[in-house]
From TrEMBL:
Signal peptide location: 1-19
Superkingdom as given in the UniProt entry: Bacteria
Entry's Gene Ontology molecular function annotations: endonuclease activity
InterPro entries listed in its UniProt record: IolE/XylAMocC-like, Xyl_isomerase-like_sf, Xyl_isomerase-like_TIM-brl
Protein name per the record: Endonuclease
PANTHER family tied to this protein: HYDROXYPYRUVATE ISOMERASE, INOSOSE DEHYDRATASE
Keyword field contains Nuclease: yes
Keywords carried by this UniProt record: Endonuclease, Hydrolase, Nuclease, Signal
Domain Xylose isomerase-like TIM barrel: 48-269
Length: 278
């Protein structure tokens, strides 16, 4: 038992030291990956790939198989023993679960179960695209549990594709805001920097992408090599003093995209430090 505790302590220390060494951690940015980037693989394998990219944070999505000898999916309805197994999986890999989504719940009771899951798993942000009619009780639950609900923007015609629709429902509740997907804004014909400025102070988390072209039908490319103006986005995040999870969501070359995510992470950190890449 003593050896196990010492081992766990070493893992936590190593994770803490890693976080301190990443440039973006100085700003309170938790750069990780949305496990949907590795949707062809179970969550356990996704964690290994995320680790290989130099990242220590993860956003889980509900329908991914867990794997690693654990049956079931990452759905918030998982039982207590499965939750404990997932927690151990995360600790063993030294990765922190900071966000969960994109997820929806059908009614207030189910939303409460989702918040209970988030509380137990230590999740900071629930990323969702809820029905507008649900927002009053979602806001109350977010304040009660002190867990953020960040409204995600799929491309138009999804309801939250434009910042206007996010601002229209979040009011002054500090636990409600935006999960800003900069790539989907570009797919919708919007400027990501302008959108971030419109949402100033209400950006709770991000789905980070760079795209090959400004078009609805396009694909991800290594960050800093596409049309999303990553240096300007990072500069705006700094200006706003953004703090929170940033999930790499790379929806291309599904069978083997870890090398491109790793290169994206390297470019992100170079841009964060120097303002540009060569």
């Amino acid at each position: 038992m003593k050896k196990a505790l010492l081992f766990l302590g070493s893992l936590l220390l190593a994770s803490s030291l890693f976080a301190q060494k990443t440039p973006e951690s100085k700003s309170g940015w938790m750069l990780g990956a949305q496990s949907y980037s590795f949707r062809l693989f179970p969550f356990a394998e996704a964690l290994r790939k995320i680790d290989s990219c130099g990242l220590k944070y993860v956003e889980a999505f509900p329908s991914q198989q867990i794997g690693g000898g654990v049956t079931g999916t990452m759905n918030f309805t998982m039982d207590a023993s499965t939750r404990q197994a997932v927690k151990k999986m995360l600790k063993d890999r030294g990765i922190t679960l900071v966000a969960y989504g994109v997820v929806r719940a059908k009614d207030e009771a189910e939303w409460k179960a989702l918040f209970e899951f988030a509380k137990e798993m230590g999740i900071r942000n629930i990323n969702s695209e809820p029905d507008v009619k649900q927002m009053p009780y979602i806001g109350k639950l977010a304040q009660q549990y002190k867990i953020n609900v960040a409204l995600h923007n799929h491309p138009k015609p999804s309801h939250y594709w434009h910042p206007d629709s996010v601002l229209a429902v979040i009011g002054n509740n500090p636990y409600l805001g935006s999960c800003s997907d900069i790539g989907h804004w570009v797919r919708s014909g919007l400027n990501p920097v302008a959108c971030l400025k419109q949402l100033q102070g209400r950006v709770l988390g991000m789905h980070f992408k760079d795209l090959e072209e400004k078009a609805p039908k396009t694909h991800d490319v290594v960050w800093g090599t596409g049309v999303c103006d990553i240096p300007a986005v990072i500069a705006e995040m700094k200006r706003q003093k953004f703090k929170g999870p940033i999930s790499a969501e790379y929806e291309y070359h599904w069978e083997n995209n870890a090398p491109e995510i790793a290169e994206s992470v390297k470019n992100f950190r170079t841009i964060y430090t120097k303002g540009s890449i060569k």
